Amino acid sequence: MNFLSHYYFDHTTTNCYHVLGTVLPDLLKNADKNIVLHPEKHQQIQRDIQSITYGWEKHLEVDRYFHSSEFFKTHSHQLKLLLRPAIEGSPVKPFFLGHVALELILDNLLLTTGKVIADDFYAHLGSCDDEIIRAFLFSNGMKNPEAFIRFYDDFKRSRYLHSYAETEQVAYALKRICMRIWTNPFTRDQETAMNIIIRHYRQQLEDNFLSIFDEIDSMLKN
Length: 222
Description:
Elements: H1 3-8, H2 16-31, H3 47-67, H4 70-86, H5 94-112, H6 118-127, H7 130-139, H8 145-158, H9 168-178, H10 188-205, H11 210-221
Helix pairs in contact: 2-3, 2-6, 3-11, 4-5, 4-10, 5-9, 9-10
């Protein structure tokens, strides 16, 4: 799941460090795909650092349930089949595209239906003390936390998750993600075709997309 989908499960919490923990694995991956931390395997003593760890563990649990669900398997596969002819000649793998497109569509639907508020999410991140984040990263083996802190500051400042509320921006976000792996992933025509497919698929999901969140929420409580 993407940032706002992870946030959905804890959008009522008042603990900003827990919220940070629920999205930190993906933030670290975006900052540097070579960063590998396993805080869930270590005992954390400081309360705020422990809250980040609990959020991190929640992230792993949500992703595990999501990626093993019939909802994910069905819709990522359908998107793969729909997007494959639209990106013919692109180096991007259709399976990867279907996977990420589904996650971005879910974020879009959460925003556009008012189930989460992007400003609230950013307010949580803005309330976290960088010194606590540095301590968390350092205690889990990161030698140079400053590289992440710079990325994190840019992430908060850009507030680009607001753009997910515009369905036309979902294909652009897909392109940005793919550009981390492939230099020129799509032509302009391919982007246009992707936009049409994503817009139509979003409409198909709108009435029942919350079913996957309800399913995961139920599993988290068991």
